[in-house]
Design a protein that fits this description.
ABC_transporter-like_CS; 225 residues; Rossmann fold; globular; AAA+_ATPase; membrane; ATP-binding; six-stranded mixed β-sheet; binds adenosine-5'-diphosphate
């Protein structure tokens, strides 16, 4: 069977005037469905570039990205948008919630292409799953950082994605709230969602099945628990 994610010799360079930065330098790895992978490495080593490519927000210059055996480069922009909407959930360090919407509405944003009844049912279910039912009518501003990140995770889980891409999801949280967020990601992986999480925390990386270490656009090490 094809691996869920298959990355082969993937490269991405940025050019600013005369200067070229090799953000990703021919990296290769595979991720199985339902695997929880932590991505570590110093600032500037290419972690965000890799997450953006995995989430179809950026395109590599060379190499191959196969999702369930299908070469992503052959898909049209419309297909990629559909794939992203239905199959990928994003979680960011700074939550990226919409202040003008309440918690339930922020989660509903991930489901706008569904009918209203289905949407409401799914929002209720995912708020319950993330322990936010009693906060449904609050605005993000009225919540703690930990609660806001739980809303972001609820939004990421709403469409029942196959893949969650999390960019330092615990970076702005204290240790108790960070641990709660990691538990939600672990639960998602246990339920079959593949999770790729950038983190600077060795402790949080231990929650993952595997840690991939990057340096200067390359993979320099892997630890499997
Ligand atoms: P990380 O997420 O590990 O901090 P990034 O993927 O953000 O690393 O960046 C990798 C390298 O690519 C860095 O040297 C960064 O300066 C460069 N880079 C990232 N985005 C851009 C961009 N839009 N334009 C130019 N250089 C960029």
């Amino acid at each position: 069977m094809d691996p869920f994610l298959q990355i082969s010799s993937l490269s991405r360079a940025y050019r600013t005037g005369e200067v070229e930065t090799q953000a990703l330098d021919a990296i290769s790895f595979e991720v199985a469905a339902g695997e929880f992978v932590a991505l570590m490495g110093p600032s500037g080593c290419g972690k965000s570039t890799l997450l953006n490519i995995l989430g179809f927000l950026d395109t590599p210059d060379a190499g191959s990205y196969r999702l369930r055996g299908e070469e992503v480069a052959t898909l049209s922009d419309t297909q990629l948008t559909q794939l992203r909407r239905a199959h990928v959930g994003f979680v960011f360090q700074n939550f990226n919630l919409i202040d003008e919407l309440n918690v339930a509405e922020n989660v509903e944003v991930a489901l706008l292409y569904r009918d209203v009844d289905g949407r409401r049912r799914r929002v209720d279910a995912v708020l319950e799953q993330t322990g936010l039912t009693h906060r449904a009518r609050h605005r993000p501003r009225q919540l703690s950082g930990g609660q806001q990140q739980r809303v972001a995770i609820a939004r990421a889980l709403a469409a029942k994605p196959d893949l969650i891409l999390a960019d330092e999801p615990t970076g702005n949280l204290d240790s108790a709230n960070g641990a709660a967020v990691i538990d939600l990601l672990k639960d998602a992986a246990a339920a079959g969602t593949t999770v790729v999480m950038v983190t600077h925390s060795a402790l949080h990386a231990e929650a993952a099945d595997r840690t991939i270490r990057m340096l200067d656009g390359r993979i320099v090490g892997e630890t499997r628990l």
